[in-house]
Inverse folding.
């Protein structure tokens, strides 16, 4: 029996929610003022985009031969003492050199302003990149694993089971260390014996996350497949479809709809778990935030921003999945 | 057409049941055979053994001379020739009526889209449901769903049709429309094995009636023989209970 509230009670409690929320935030702000924390929200945007002054410098010694426009840029040609000519191009913002000037190597010929992506933006992009790769590989692993879990083939079944138990039974942090320290040592040393190219740390992070997620997706896929009535398989097989065809055309599409909500939850976890990758020198959002904090000391603002960015990512994903569910539900 | 020799089948879960014991029967092309018997008598298991949805433990089953229990037999090829209609329809809920009927034509029979579409339209007209072609199964009545299921099986141009209690899940007023489709098929000379409780259908359409009890074939005979002058006491008791 569900609890019944009168209209008056409902009004009281809805108001309470906002009042309590207000006092929590006010209390926090008050507390920070007590420790005389100086809020500097103005530094936060510079960690998304910052303007940098670029100096165009001469590499040789000589005389400025000509300064002429070249499209949006200006071309500065310098005739070296030994007769060589060097030309430099810079946006026509501030040209410091003039025709006929004597130039030494290292002199600034022109300067211009350029927008550069800031630490937080770079970190955000890295988090998105790592998450997308890991989600794609995780889905593939999960589908293979899920089909393996319910396969008639004992080897497939046991491999899938071992995979799931091994991965779900150990902490993600430890797995990341294992992939990075043990995996990369092995792989890079083996490769270096035959030509010496190294796999970047990014990929160990992606693999760790993908394999971790794949184990959970395996179980989600398995339960989704098992939730489809056995009559569906029988109908498909009795029409002459192979095992693979009945999975592909009949079982998987139906299972996908049921799998979608738990899958979304898993991928939201993955985005959040990607914050652990900072420990293996992948500069994702959390690590980027920590770096930004060490240079600006605006720790409160930056960590709040960092949290808000994760929220934007996860909320977007869950909206997207809701949209998919609606679309699949009507068809 | 169908040759079943000394087939045995035991289920071990949830407890041991001898589902089929020494079942032997031959069914000719164009014959309509109705299998009747009390529930748990092995009728459905017998039917499901014929297209290898269940694997017989012992004995041999030949479909058009091909031993379907032989490991070298490609069972998918046999199943394409043996249509099956289920008690619970088992239509594909994520596909429209049209797609239900055309999917296996394209995937299994490798028919071109247009050819499959034409065949689908013909069959939907045949079972009287052409106006529902673009509807999803959930929007159909039980009788309509079962007719689509029959069309889906016929789309493979099977040589044999198996019916596993096709009207048992239907509301009484819808049984007739499904039986009518089956009668049409029988008239056209389709080889049919039908597990059913519809005695009227058995009497009217069957060439032979198989009576099963406790996993054995008790009696095989013409409908006249079966309904008017059965040889076995078990058959008499069963008939007295249902008629």
């Amino acid at each position: 029996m569900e609890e019944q509230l009168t209209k008056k009670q409902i009004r009281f409690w809805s108001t309470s929610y906002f009042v309590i929320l207000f006092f929590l935030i006010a209390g926090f702000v008050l507390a920070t003022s007590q420790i005389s924390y100086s809020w500097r929200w103005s530094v936060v945007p510079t960690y998304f985009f910052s303007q940098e002054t670029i100096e165009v410098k001469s590499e040789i010694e000589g005389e400025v031969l000509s300064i002429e426009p070249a499209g949006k840029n200006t071309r500065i040609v310098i005739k070296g003492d030994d007769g060589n000519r060097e030309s430099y191009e810079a946006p026509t913002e501030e040209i410091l050199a003039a025709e006929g000037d004597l130039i030494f190597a290292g002199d600034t010929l022109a300067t211009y302003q350029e927008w550069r992506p800031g630490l937080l933006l770079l970190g955000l992009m890295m988090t998105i990149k790592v998450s997308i790769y890991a989600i794609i590989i995780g889905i593939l692993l999960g589908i293979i694993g899920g089909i393996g879990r319910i396969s008639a083939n004992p080897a497939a079944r046991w491999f899938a089971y071992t995979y799931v138990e091994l991965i779900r039974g150990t902490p993600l942090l430890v797995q990341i260390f294992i992939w990075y320290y043990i995996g990369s040592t092995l792989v890079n040393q083996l490769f270096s014996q035959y030509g010496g190219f190294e796999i970047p740390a990014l990929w160990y992070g992606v693999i760790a996350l993908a394999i971790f997620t794949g184990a959970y997706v395996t179980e989600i896929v398995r339960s989704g497949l098992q939730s489809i009535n056995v009559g569906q398989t029988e109908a498909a097989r009795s029409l002459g479809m192979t095992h693979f065809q009945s999975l592909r055309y009949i079982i998987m599409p139906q299972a996908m709809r049921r799998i979608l909500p738990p899958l979304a939850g898993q991928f939201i976890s993955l985005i959040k778990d990607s914050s652990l990758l900072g420990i293996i020198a992948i500069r994702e959002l959390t690590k980027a935030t920590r770096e930004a904090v060490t240079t600006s000391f605006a720790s409160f603002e930056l960590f709040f921003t960092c949290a808000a960015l994760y929220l934007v990512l996860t909320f977007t994903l869950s909206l997207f999945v809701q949209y998919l569910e609606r679309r699949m539900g009507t068809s | 057409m169908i040759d079943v020799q000394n087939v045995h089948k035991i289920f071990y879960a949830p407890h041991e049941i001898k589902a089929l014991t020494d079942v032997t029967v031959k069914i000719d092309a164009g014959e309509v055979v109705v299998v009747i018997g009390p529930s748990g008598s092995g009728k459905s298991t017998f039917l499901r053994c014929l297209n290898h949805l269940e694997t017989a433990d012992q004995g041999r089953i030949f479909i058009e001379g091909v031993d379907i229990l032989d490991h070298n037999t490609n069972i998918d090829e046999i199943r394409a020739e043996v249509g099956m209609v289920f008690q619970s329809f088992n239509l594909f809920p994520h596909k429209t009526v049209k797609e239900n009927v055309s999917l296996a034509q394209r995937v299994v029979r490798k028919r071109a889209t247009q050819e499959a579409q034409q065949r689908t339209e013909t069959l939907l007209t045949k079972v009287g449901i052409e106006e529902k072609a673009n509807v999803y199964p959930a929007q159909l009545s039980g009788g309509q769903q079962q007719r689509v299921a029959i069309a889906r099986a016929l789309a493979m141009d099977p040589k044999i049709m198996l019916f596993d209690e096709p009207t048992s899940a239907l509301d009484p007023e819808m049984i007739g429309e499904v039986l009518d489709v089956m009668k049409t098929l029988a008239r056209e000379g389709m080889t049919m094995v039908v597990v059913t409780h519809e005695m009227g259908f058995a009497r009217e359409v069957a060439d032979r009636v198989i009576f099963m009890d406790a996993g054995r074939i008790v009696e095989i005979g013409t409908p006249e023989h079966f309904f008017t002058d059965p040889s076995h006491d078990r058959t008499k008791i069963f008939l007295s209970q249902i008629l």
Summary: Chain B has a mean pLDDT of 93.
